[in-house]
Specification:
Blueprint (H helix, E strand, L loop, with lengths): L4 E7 L4 E4 L5 E14 L5 E13 H10 L5 E15 L5 E14 L14 E2 L16
Parallel strand pairs: 4-6
Antiparallel strand pairs: 1-3, 1-5, 2-3, 3-4, 5-6, 6-7
Length: about 140
């Protein structure tokens, strides 16, 4: 069995880095992924889905250092957990927790560019050693 989820969205809060009891860094943040469309009546519509993202080890350190609220990123990962809950108005909602395996920064590097920026990959781990590259971009 295999699952892979690809999300492009904006950070809804500042990344929070902490360490597990064994000293492994983990960074978490909320990611807003919005879908926009025009309905049959010609009215613009938008729906935002929120995901709770977790990054581990070197990617956690890089995310904590370089990301901030509002940054656009692409996340590749898998759904770790979903938890249903009811909001104040009685609407059923869900918390969707995603463990990221890949992080790509989507921010424009130059001011004034109108085109969509190219993603910048955070290096993946070396399969044999599990070590990350020392250069984050």
């Amino acid at each position: 069995m295999y699952q892979q989820l690809i999300l492009i969205g904006n950070l809804g809060n500042e990344p929070e880095m902490r360490y597990t009891a064994s000293g492994v860094p983990v960074t978490t943040f909320n990611l807003a992924v919005s879908k926009r469309w025009t309905n049959a009546e010609g009215q613009s519509q938008e729906k935002t889905t929120w995901f709770r993202i977790s990054l581990w080890r070197r990617q956690a350190e890089i995310a904590s250092q370089y990301l901030a609220k509002g940054h656009r990123v692409m996340i590749v990962g898998e759904v770790d957990l979903t938890r249903p809950w009811t909001d104040r108005d009685g609407n059923l909602r869900a918390n969707i927790e995603v463990t990221a395996t890949e992080l790509k920064l989507m921010e424009n590097r130059g001011a004034g560019t109108a085109s969509e920026p190219e993603p910048t990959a955070i290096p993946a781990s070396d399969e044999a050693t599990g070590e990350k590259s020392s250069v984050p971009f």
